[in-house]
Amino acid sequence: MEKCEVCFRHCELREGQVGACRARVNREGRIRPVYYGELSSVALDPIEKKPLARFHPGSVILSVGSLGCNLRCLFCQNHEIAQPDSKGSFSIPTEHLSPEELVDLALRCRPRGNIGIAYTYNEPLVGYEYVRDTAKPAHEKGLRNVLVTNGTASLQVLAEIAPYIDAMNIDLKGFTDRYYREILQGDRRMVMEFIREAVQGCHVELTTLIVPRENDSEAEMRELSGWVAGIRHVHGGKQGKEIPLHISRFFPRHRMTDRGPTDVRKIYRLAEVAREQLDYVYTGNC
Ligand code: SF4
User: Fold this and answer.
1) Cβ contact 271:280 at 8 Å
2) Using CB atoms within 10 A of its CB, is residue 104 exposed (0-12), middle (13-18) or buried (19+)?
3) C-beta 61 within 6 A of ligand 1
């Protein structure tokens, strides 16, 4: 048995066994990524789509995703690449690109305004070795690296990639342990620790998806934004209240189709609540 220490699940895996994220396996007595360099999606996206509002606005970034995720969000918008089917596998085809090939592609996209590479779509940190091995040469070629993550990874994983990451969008999906446990199968404490550490090293923006009847109270938003505002030691000598927060609207998807989209007025109201304590609050999907 070998233990994976990437996330809160601490999967103990027998030889050949795959972890809960379906992206890490015990092979020859070592925990390794299953989908190293296997890309399920490659697109040149506006940076605002990550979403990042205060990092190179108006630019585009080569965005790539692979397969697997350590959460099980009932409403996952990317479940075809993030969550396995009932047989425990993915039916999406992938294309193999080595770190060097991906960096080359990003450089070739420069004339179209590309500033770098975004690791996104599924959860990139369940295959953090590929992020690390690509981000380093990308940096050396003057490209920017952006990570879009659910933030449920250990500080050791963060330490391995942090030197090469220029900006992150981290989900802070709600502010109760119940929501993280029951709706996401996640761990809120791990996300909070990850955010506190990440903001010290690079530009970070946060995203909260508002799901009706789950995390949509003003009290929860007040508590969440208050916690963000209170974070000390933010990159670039900034304060916690300068960390941008994106509040976005839920649409019924995947296993959560028992309710309609979030009322747009609710999103605007919660944004007002967050602005009581934060300087940069954005609304999304409205
Ligand atoms: S990253 Fe995957 S294998 Fe590792 S502990 Fe988390 S769910 Fe388990």
Assistant:
1) no
2) middle
3) no
- pTM score of the predicted model: 0.98
Tell how far the Cα of 193 is from the centroid of ligand 1, in angstroms: 17
Element (H, E) at 45: strand 41-46
Q: Distance between CA atoms of 11 and 4, rounded to whole angstroms?
A: 5
Residue that is written with structure tokens 């030197």 in the block: 163
Q: What is the pLDDT of residues 91-150, one digit of tens each?
A: 999 999 999 999 999 999 999 999 999 999 999 999 999 999 999 999 999 999 999 999
Alpha helices in the chain (DSSP H): 79-82, 99-108, 128-140, 155-161, 177-182, 188-201, 218-229, 264-275
- Contact partners, residue 65, CB within 8 Å, separation at least 6: 39, 40, 41, 78, 81, 119, 120, 121, 122, 124
Joined together, the tokens standing for residue 210 give 């508002």
Gap from CA of 152 to ligand 1 centroid (Å): 10
User: With 90 as the cut, is the pLDDT of residue 163 above it?
Assistant: yes
Measured distance CA(165)–CA(197) in Å, rounded: 13
pLDDT of 59 over the 90 cut: yes
Rounded Cα–Cα distance for residues 220 and 213 (Å): 12
Contact 3 CB / ligand 1 (< 6 Å): no
Q: Find out whether the beta carbon of 126 lies less than 6 Å from any atom of ligand 1.
A: yes
Tokens 């300068």 map to which residue? Answer: 242
